[in-house]
Structures are given as structure tokens and as C-alpha cells.
Amino acid sequence: MNLTAVLNDPNTMWILLGSMLLGLSSGVIGTFAYLRKQALIGDALSHAALPGICIAFLITGTKSIIFFLIGAAISGLMAIFLIGLFTRKSRIKQDSAFGIVLSVFFGAGIVMLTRIQQGGAGNQSGLDKFLFGQTASMLMSDVITMVIISLFLITVTALCFKEFKLVSFDPGFASGIGYPVSWLEYWMMFLIVISVVTGIQAVGVVLMVALLITPAVSARYWTEDLRVMIVLSGFFGMMSGISGTLLSTVANNLPTGPLTVLSASFWFLISVIFAPKRGVLMKFARRNKIKREYLRSQQTIMAEGRKSV
Predict the structure, then answer these.
(1) Which residue did the predictor score with more confidence, 307 or 108?
(2) How far apart are CA 203 and CA 195, in angstroms?
(3) CB 293: neighbour CB atoms within 10 A?
(4) Tens-digit pLDDT profile for residues 273-303
(5) What's the CA gap between 240 and 213, in Å, rounded?
(6) Running DSSP on this structure, what letter comes out for residue 297?
(7) Helix axis angle, 181-203 relative to 226-250, nearest 10°?
(8) Domains of the chain and any CATH numbers
């Protein structure tokens, strides 16, 4: 399918809108996950969501994003609870707890997914596409739900910007002025869960964390202002969603998730090289400028020394 045919197809345009808003909302909410050094939480949630999706399918027998959202959210929250329990009640460190819970939940999900596929219903429903994502398997109802949830995430983040900012940078001060820090942290965690679950069908379980974190890391190279960083992160996520979906649609049989992640990685590479303050080129230019100024100053000192002699 060529690009012109894709852009003229109304159904594809709806899917493109959903992917665009998914990338935008993931970039926005992922900024706070990145600032709070919770990249692994997104990874754990995305992998832990798979058994919840499989159980939801086994119970309902239908591929409904609403039921998948509920099942994956419950599964993800259980994973977060277990990580916290292991960290508090044992000598296991947080990174080890992440690894244990992630592997156990994902392994259980793969076993369930294999059983479903062996029964024949999994492939017919497109459930196997949840590993690496495939926008072609999405129904119009899935796209509409994705649009609504993405707009909800963007709106909530905008309304709670001040609170999220304080909790991310100085939770002690936020607690001192009366903010319910624990509830705000759980609220942010719940938003991350929703973002992960919403994007799983388009990007896939394995790679959803990249759509949360990579745009935020790219945006951090360009600015020191949190508002600007959120806007840039949303922009990079949006462009990644658009390009990944278009490439997946044009190149048949290629999964959306890896293409979206490669697009996000492309924007990260651009940021690393061309960012005005932290970019490699700018650092190289500053280093050369300092070197030239130093050499000129040394030449001036030597010239003055010869004159005095």
C-alpha cells in the first residue's frame, strides 16, 4: 500500500489519529516517570499487563479494549503492590524486585497466550499482536477508546501540573505544605498504568516503555523548563506514533511497535546530536571555542613577554 492510498483511507486516518494522541499522551505522562526515575516501573507495568489481558480474554471471549484495560490495570497494580511488598518486607532491592515481578508476570502471560493461540481463538481475535503491536488489528471502537483515554490523560496532566511538579522535584516540601504526596504518587502511577495499557495494542507489551521514556529523554536535551520539556516530549511521542503507524501500514506485515520505537530512537539521536546546549555538536563547538581562546591568550602572553624583553 502506498502512502497516498493510506492518507485517503478514512479508517487508516482514524487509526493514525489514535496513534498520534497515544504518542502525545505517553510523552506527556512519561515526562514525570522519567523525572522521578521510574523508567523501570513502566517496563514492569507493560510486561505485567500481559496476563491481565489474557485473563480478560478468557473470561469475556472477546477482544475489547475496555475489558483488556480493566484486566491489565488490575494485573499492573498487583505487580506494583508486589514490588513494594518485596522492597519493604525483605532485603530484596527495588531493581531486583522489578526483575523478579516482571519476569514472573510476563512468563505467566506468555504461557496463557500460547494456550489461547493453541485453542485457535487467539489468532482469530488478533490477541497475538499484543506482543509487538499491530495497528491493523485495531477496530474503530478501539481507536475511539484510545482517543478518549489519551485526551483524558493529557487533560488530567494539565490540571494537576503544579502538584505533579512539586511531587516530582521536592516531595518533602509538597508534604510540608499539605499536599497528599502518597495519593499523588499513586495517582501518577495509575495514569502510567492507563497509558501503558492503552498503548499495548498499538505498540506492544515489550516496547511500550520506550514510548513512555524515550520522548522524555529526547526533550530533556533541549530545555531546562519543565513546561517546554512536556510539550517537546509530547511532540516527539506524537511524531513517533505517526511515523511508526504510517511505516507499519505502508510496509505490510511489519509490526507497529518496533517501527514506533525506531522512530522515537531517531528523534533521540537528533536530540543527542543537535540539541543547542547538550548536543554533541554544540559541545564540540564550545570545546573548540575554548581551545582557540586559550591558544590566543597564550600567544598574547608570549608576545607581551617578548616585547618586555
Answers:
(1) 108
(2) 11
(3) 10
(4) 999 888 889 888 888 888 888 888 887 777 7
(5) 12
(6) H
(7) 20
(8) 3-278 (1.10.3470.10)
Q: What share of the chain is helix, strand, coil (3-state, %, to 5)?
A: 85, 0, 15
Amino acid at site 12: T
CA pair distance 187, 33, nearest whole angstrom? 12
> How far is the CA of 211 from the CAs of 203, 298, 302, in angstroms?
8, 50, 56
Q: In 200-263, where do the E strands start and end?
A: none
Identity of the residue numbered 183 = W
DSSP tag of 91: S
- Closest-CA residue to 260 (of 227, 283, 238): 238
DSSP 120-183: THHHHHTGGGGTT--GGG--HHHHHHHHHHHHHHHHHHHHTHHHHHHHHH-HHHHHHTT--HHH
How many Å apart are CA 202 and CA 200, to the nearest integer?
6
Asked if residue 44 lies in contact with residue 79, where contact means CB atoms within 8 angstroms, the answer is: yes
Highest mean pLDDT among 35-39, 208-212, 240-244: 240-244
At 287, the amino acid letter reads R
Kindly give, in sequence order, each residue whose CB lies less than 8 Å from that of residue 285, ignoring residues fewer than 6 positions away. Answer: none
Question: Please, are residues 261 and 242 in contact by the beta-carbon 8 Å criterion?
Answer: no
